[in-house]
Amino acid sequence: MNRYATTGIAWSAYVLIAAVLAWAGMGKAFNPGAFAASIMGFRIVPWPVAVGLSLYLPWLELLIAAGVLIPRWRAGALLLATLLFMVFAVIWAVTWARGVDVACGCFGGDGRTPAGWALLRVAVMALISGWLLRRSLQGRGLS
Question: Could you give the CA distance from residue 72 to residue 69 in angstroms, rounded to a whole number?
Answer without folding.
Answer: 9
